[in-house]
Amino acid sequence: MLNLRRGNSTEGSNPSLSAFFICGGIVFVEPGEKVRVRFAPSPTGYLHVGGARTAIFNWLFAKKYGGNFLLRIEDTDAARSGEDMVAAILDGMSWLGLDWDDDVVFQSKRLEVYDEFVNQLIDCGRAYKCYCTKDEIEANRQLAKSENRDYRYNHDRRCNHLTQSEIQTYDKAEMPYAVRLLLPEGKTKFVDAVYGEITVEHSQLDDFIIRRSDGYPTYHLAVVVDDHEMQISHILRGDDHLSNTPKHIQIYHALGWDLPKYCHLPLILGKDKQRLSKRHGATAIGEYEKAGYLSVAMLNFLTLLGWSSGDDRELFSRDELVDTFSEKGIQKKSAVFDEKKLEWMNGQYLNALEQSEFYQLVTAQLLNTNAIDELFISKDSAYLRRMSELIQPRIKRLSEIGEMTGYFFKDPESYDQKALNKHWKAADQITRFEQIQQRLGTIALFSIEEIEAVIRGYAEELQVGAGKILQPLRLAVTGIAATPGMFEIMELLGKDTVLRRLQAAISYLKKNPVSSSTINAA
Ligand code: GLU
Fold first, then answer.
1. pLDDT, tens only, 292-330
2. Best mutation site among 39, 72, 237 for ligand 1, i.e. most ligand atoms within 8 A of its Cβ?
3. Which of 46, 53, 70, 74 for mutating ligand 1's site (highest number of atoms within 8 Å of CB)?
4. What is the extent of the structural domain holding 291?
5. Which of 34, 109, 145, 278 is catalytic?
6. Is the model's pTM score more than 0.85?
7. Among 86, 255, 396, 421, which residue carries the largest CB count within 10 Å?
8. CA 99 to CA 468: how far, in whole Å?
9. Domain at 378, CATH number
10. Mean per-residue pLDDT, 74-93
């Protein structure tokens, strides 16, 4: 584990430590500077929440400065990378509306370029071939352990001391070799936009491998070569890469290239404050799309993971995010992924949609799940529109639509058991339903006002609150415990349907009386 000394003026719990650092205030973007950033996922998994957040910050940053946002697929680990993963990453980015400039760069197509720079480093003496086998290295590691010493290859740099003729002999015999960067004495210092100045003593690093013995470049080499060749000006990435940055800087120095500026983004944690992982639930962006989240809500929610506008504001349209985002608002503190908050936010977006837009989403979802067909839409669009209006204020996820609207299409086949035990336990429940049925039956124009007058009048007669009548009625008419307003629902379903459903509830209760024993058993 590297010992990174980090600085921050605001978190000076250790004053002697904070004295090491220039605190805050690096000029991250010079006036007139050309901003070019990139998102560089490894396709060893789907686009996950952390990766998407990194992509969003880069995209917003590029937009803010009128720069370019590039996409690079880091697929040099052929065994672990998959085309389906690449497709899922591109789909996830498109769903979030993160458009990138230029063609996607695939590292697997650039192996010759990496070779060229590795060879250049060997030729100028900044890297060397290492013929040590894994077993030899492991044996040395074990020996160091048994002698209570740290193990590092550069303690003896065995292969860096080979003579030219030894190297020639090994190469003639086609002995496999890795290539290691020759690390100079000293330390690496850099300033990170979030973490401030960081210093790492080289005694803590090693002559790390830049090309493996299978001929593939390591991540460290490929990332530096590509960032240089793609003229990346700023690197915004997860802070799990903070400890890699000194190594990258050493490669930049060895190749004589200018450094980009760095900004490492805070970790994303689950609600238990542990690093977010599958254990916490869905982490792939595609799962959220399937679960009925709007992409703009997801974009808004992910942007707030580690960024703040400074005024506690939480809801932003896409354009507002572009206008408001600034790297200055990136927080150092780890961000907590709270799915309840995401759900709330999604609900806010769904509620705020134009009714016609929401109607389109509702019908698309119902068609998708075969709850309705095109014919139904063309015949009964007024019914569907009104239903969509009724559910819009209550919905949190599009995937709830099926379960929220079942009773608009079908009589209940069962009743929510918990609600039944709670709301149908009055000794005279059957009589109550019969009386309501009779009174509703006399209404000529089955309108909200008329229905409401009947129900409220009946509640007054019984000297009970309207809820005591409405809750049992809700269960009878819909089969579930929570729905939009009952007067509106009954008006839309129409008199015949409501009376038929009341009759079914009466029959059910006659066959299945809600006795105190069933209540207790529930
Ligand atoms: N490919 C790396 C990853 O997926 C990102 C590399 C970088 O941003 O420098 O974690």
1. 999 999 999 999 999 999 998 999 999 999 999 999 999
2. 237
3. 74
4. 278-349
5. 278
6. yes
7. 396
8. 54
9. 1.10.8
10. 92
